[in-house]
Prior knowledge:
single chain, mainly alpha, 60% helix
Amino acid sequence: MEKARQWNVPMLLVKDTVEAAIHAASVGFIHPDAIAGIQTDKRSDEKAPTDLEQLVEE
């Protein structure tokens, strides 16, 4: 973060991808409509793996 600050590059510490997406939309980096999909992806990523997914990972 210090290197970024030295080069006047803004840096934001966020708790998750949804918070990052909200910020990105607020400054015009992404379209606000993208936030809903990011929220859905986050919920999906947080679900426990299915039995099949566990088998494939082994």
